[in-house]
């Protein structure tokens, strides 16, 4: 296990991922970086509810694009409107992105912990902290 990243320490993140094993791996990675996983949503409906909850203090999000046949873009749009940065983590890579999110930070699955950590530092290093 690596030492927690000072840049990411205490960063409060939402994870939207429908595959339980992958969600657990992401949680473990984020924990090793010093991040706090605020909640995990395995469905679009739960992801939307969490993204809409302005009392939920989140600094950023990790979003899988395909959630059991539904796409996560409504969650991403709500987060974007709130000014909450996010990263798409998907097995489809950039080729699977909606044109509306073509410039969004994207990490292709499978990825190594170092790749996720570097992307988080780049995208959320200066994120507003709660």
UniProtKB/TrEMBL annotation:
Protein name: Response regulator
Residues that bear 4-aspartylphosphate: 64
Keywords, ordered alphabetically: Phosphoprotein
Gene Ontology biological process: phosphorelay signal transduction system
A Pfam family it matches: Response_reg
InterPro entries the UniProt entry points to: Bact_response_regulator (IPR050595), CheY-like_superfamily (IPR011006), Sig_transdc_resp-reg_receiver (IPR001789)
Domain Response regulatory: 12-124
